[in-house]
Amino acid sequence: MAKLAILGSRGIPAKYGAFEVAAERVGKGLVEKGWEVTVYCPHDQAYRDNLYEGMTLRYVWHPRGGVGSLLYDGLSLLLASAGGFDAILMFGYGAGPLFVIPRLLGVPIVVNTDGLEWKRSKWSWPVKLYFRLAEHATARIANRLISDAHGIRRYYKEKYGVDSEYIAYGTELPDVPKFDVRQFGVEPGRYYIVVMRLEPENSILEIVRGFLASRSSRMLILVGPSTPFFESMVRPLLDGQNRVRYLGPIYERDRVFALRQNAFAYLHGHTVGGTNPSLLEALASESFVIAKDVEFNREVVGELGRYFDSAQDLTRVLHDVELVEPSAIKAAGRAGRAVIEKAFQWQHIIDAYERVVATTIASR
Question: Dihedral of the CA atoms 204, 206, 210, 216 (nearest 10)?
Fold first, then answer.
């Protein structure tokens, strides 16, 4: 029985984001395949048991802030490297220079690199510089890299001459919605929806400006945790109007899926990462997708959606989409769900992770 340590998440059960969902899903799937899996979690998370869905949980000190996250990852790497594991699966490259720890102790490390963190506009230039250095260290030190988008895979090959394994992110197929979205004050089919962390690189300002400049009679619903950027740059645009509503973060997945399934279309503004979980969930919900025109989004949506590259362009796209026959919108939504069924189901993802980690262990 192989022993695997999973690091880099903010703990399970998943409540925070994509890495947490991936750590939980992959870890649980590997346990069901006979692996012994330990997930390293922050010391202050709400769930405190030592076991979850067959996985062992180890709690590690996690101070607040960016430096605190680096300390958390460093301590986790040190403990896992000395913990008798056959391999470490790391989500994220923020602690890239510290990946030398398991290598020195003879423990292979497989890293899911996620997106291009240094491109995020929220970071100061020293932080961006650090992420560039961490990315470089990851490419040079890790035993194997995993990229969740073909564009990220090409980037590492062209930039560093390093091959990485393409393994997409996964999602689930939602059932028929049981939650009535009217409880949020919206009518089915009469709104657009955004589900994201409201950061500048996710195009939230462009989306709101583009929508407000349109003549759509539908509403725009924003779902996600607030940020300083949102409060200073976007929130003022919402004052004195009733076309855009901010619902805040919603952590009940059935409610989020119901909101997506009942929306006229889903607006997706992500520009930095690889395969985005929110985009996959929108397609799984049979949402018609209007996405920012970047490689990572086209890679997933293909010809099934529409694309915009600015606020003005979004205004035009919204006008055009509302002239499309409703049956065509529905057909594109069904085709999007078929894409998820074929390529982004968790069982396929778990099988791929098992193959990569097992191969890495065998070749050490």
Answer: -10
Which CATH number is 3-169+345-362 given? 3.40.50.2000
Does residue 40 carry a pLDDT above 80? yes
Structure tokens at 337: 């769900």
- Residues 171/340, Cβ–Cβ less than 8 Å: yes
Q: Is the dihedral of CA 174, 115, 81, 35 positive or negative?
A: positive
Could you read off the pLDDT of 184-242 as tens digits, one per residue? Answer: 999 999 999 999 989 898 999 999 999 999 999 999 999 998 999 999 999 999 998 99
Fold matches, 3-169+345-362 and 181-343: yes
Note the pTM of the prediction, 2 decimals: 0.86
What is the phi-psi region of residue 240: left when phi exceeds 0, alpha when psi lies from -120 to 50, beta otherwise?
left
Element (H, E) at 211: helix 204-212
- Domain boundaries defined on the chain: 3-169+345-362, 181-343
pLDDT top residue among 69 and 56: 56
Task: Give the three-class secondary structure for 21.
Answer: helix
Q: How far apart are CA 297 and CA 317, in angstroms?
A: 16
Beta strands in 69-151 (DSSP E): 87-91, 109-112, 144-147
**Residues 272-321: tens digit of each pLDDT:** 777 888 899 999 999 999 999 998 899 999 999 999 999 999 999 999 99
* Cβ contacts of 180 within 8 Å, gap of 6 or more: 258
Distances (CA, A) of 13 to 21, 45, 61, 91: 8, 10, 18, 16
Q: Which residue is listed with tokens 């078929």?
A: 338
């880099």: which residue's tokens?
Answer: 8
Q: Which architecture, in CATH terms, is 181-343?
A: 3-Layer(aba) Sandwich (3.40)
The sign of the CA dihedral 276, 280, 285, 291 is positive
Q: Are strands 51-52 and 55-60 parallel, antiparallel or unpaired?
A: antiparallel
